[in-house]
């Protein structure tokens, strides 16, 4: 019989669920905390520009709603405010060819919760999830929590999706394939029409579900407005769950995202949402509805965002090219928040970070974004939250850090990822 006076071992008395063993604290969290430090130019955080937040409109709308309809502080519809779901269905319908039925659209606390609900509905421990190489770290964390087997396969960087096709032919049977087809986090890459058609065809042939995560699709910078964006994956296959977000074009504190799911899945996802939290804040949903249905509001907000972010992207790209020449390689992203770069001399980006912080600039080492086999010479530089002046200065700081690290003998990484010297 146990001695009741013995010291309690809280670790044993409060054992954690097995699934929590999969959770890893990401270096991004640590870098973001450091990046908050005064004087550091934060190229680590992928945050929207606060200058774009519609604070005055939110203040005006929320004040009026509270005066005129105090009942909006009541519990709301679990799947989300019906009028907002209708607006979303019509809004995303333009990209899908035909609007989804509003009852197939479920609002969630950001697209991050939408992804969590999808995993809860579809993944059993040990199920395989294909992720891009590299992939969004927040998604990797959710897949790990559901004890998925991660299968990293190059998607955006593989024009014919040959690696995925081969893996499927050789017997890989994923339950999900996760992709950010437009201006991905971290690479900024966009899937071509050929890649989209091929991926949709593979989903139909092999029976997996595609999770199409699209927080950045509206933020495209290289168009005069006359070129249509490539079709959404959800318009090419019935096996697609599409995630969207108000975080990047409105404001992330709304914590408002949504999923659009094929008919048989939508009711299950609705029940899971109910079990998770009974629903989003009806108050915030009503504010967002008022904003997005104001004539011209979304178009103006999106246009202002495109102009601001395009200027920031250009400023960072130009400054990096000036400072580094060919030493830092990157493709110009056509949208989104990030420049994904690689040191041609294979500098270890994780090793360089401490030097960079001393030189007052942060970024995220690219290794964070790989489910396995990281390319340690890569790094993600976010231009969304900094002024053009700060971005120009940041490139100088980064170059100074790189020069001093090289002079101090910072090891480069071997082609396979290990330390070369
Ligand atoms: C690819 C991707 N998906 C999802 C999210 C989460 O967005 P939300 O604020 O809607 O939860 C982010 C945020 O950075 C992201 O980059």
Please give a quick description of this structure.
The protein is an alpha/beta fold and 421 residues long. The protein has 13 helices and 13 strands.
Give short descriptive properties of this protein.
alpha/beta; binds pyridoxal-5'-phosphate; 421 residues; globular; four-stranded antiparallel sheet; Aspartate Aminotransferase, domain 1
Q: How is the secondary structure organized here?
A:
Elements: H1 10-13, H2 27-35, E1 41-42, H3 55-68, H4 82-96, E2 105-108, H5 110-122, E3 128-131, H6 137-145, E4 149-152, H7 162-169, E5 176-179, H8 193-206, E6 209-213, E7 240-245, E8 257-260, H9 266-277, H10 282-292, H11 297-324, E9 328-330, E10 338-343, H12 349-358, E11 361-362, E12 364-365, E13 378-382, H13 388-407
Helix pairs in contact: 3-10, 5-6, 5-9, 11-13, 12-13
The chain binds pyridoxal-5'-phosphate.
Describe the protein.
This protein has 421 residues and is an alpha/beta fold. It has 2 domains: 23-46 and 299-407, Aspartate Aminotransferase, domain 1 (Alpha-Beta Complex); 55-293, Aspartate Aminotransferase, domain 2. 40% of the residues lie in helices and 12% in strands. The protein is built from 13 helices and 13 strands. The strands form 3 sheets. A 7-stranded mixed β-sheet has the order 2-8-7-6-5-3-4, with helices on both faces. A 4-stranded antiparallel β-sheet has the order 9-10-13-12. Helix 8 (193-206) links the parallel strand 5 (176-179) and strand 6. Helix 5 packs parallel to helix 6 (137-145). The longest helix is centred in the last third of the chain and has 28 residues, at 297-324.
């Amino acid at each position: 019989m146990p001695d009741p006076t013995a010291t309690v071992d809280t670790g044993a008395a409060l054992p954690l669920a097995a699934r929590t063993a999969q959770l890893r604290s990401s270096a991004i969290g640590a870098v973001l905390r450091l990046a908050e430090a005064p004087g550091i130019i934060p190229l680590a955080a992928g945050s929207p520009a606060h200058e774009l937040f519609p604070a005055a409109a939110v203040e005006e709308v929320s004040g009026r709603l509270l005066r005129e309809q105090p009942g909006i502080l009541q519990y709301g519809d679990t799947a989300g405010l019906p009028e907002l779901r209708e607006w979303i269905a019509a809004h995303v319908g333009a990209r899908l060819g035909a609007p989804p039925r509003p009852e197939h659209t479920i609002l969630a606390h950001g697209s991050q919760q939408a992804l969590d609900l999808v995993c809860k509905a579809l993944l059993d421990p040990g199920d395989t999830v294909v992720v891009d190489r590299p992939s969004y770290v927040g998604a990797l964390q959710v897949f790990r929590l559901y004890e998925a087997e991660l299968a990293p396969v190059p998607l955006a960087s593989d024009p014919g999706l040959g690696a995925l096709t081969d893996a499927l032919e050789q017997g890989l049977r994923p339950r999900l394939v996760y992709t950010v087809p437009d201006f991905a986090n971290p690479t900024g890459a966009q899937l071509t029409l050929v890649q989209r058609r091929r991926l949709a065809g593979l989903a139909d042939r092999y029976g997996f579900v595609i999770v199409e995560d699209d927080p950045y699709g509206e933020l495209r910078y290289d168009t005069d407005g006359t070129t249509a964006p490539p079709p959404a994956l959800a318009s090419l296959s019935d096996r697609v769950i599409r995630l969207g977000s108000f975080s990047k074009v409105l404001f992330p504190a709304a914590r408002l995202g949504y999923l659009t799911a094929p008919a048989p899945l939508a009711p299950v996802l609705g029940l899971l949402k109910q079990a998770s939290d009974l629903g989003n804040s009806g108050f915030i949903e009503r504010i967002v509805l008022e904003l997005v249905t104001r004539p011209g509001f979304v178009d103006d907000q999106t246009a202002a965002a495109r102009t601001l972010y395009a200027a920031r992207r250009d400023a960072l790209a130009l400054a990096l090219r000036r400072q580094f020449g060919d030493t830092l390689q990157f493709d110009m992203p056509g949208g989104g928040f990030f420049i994904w770069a690689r040191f041609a001399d294979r500098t270890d980006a994780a090793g360089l970070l401490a030097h960079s912080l001393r030189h007052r600039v942060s970024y995220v080492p690219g290794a964070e974004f790989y489910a396995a086999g990281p390319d340690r010479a890569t790094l993600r530089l976010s231009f969304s939250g900094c002024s053009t002046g700060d971005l120009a200065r940041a490139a100088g700081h980064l170059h100074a850090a790189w020069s001093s690290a090289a002079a101090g003998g910072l090891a480069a990484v071997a082609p396979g990822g290990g330390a070369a010297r």
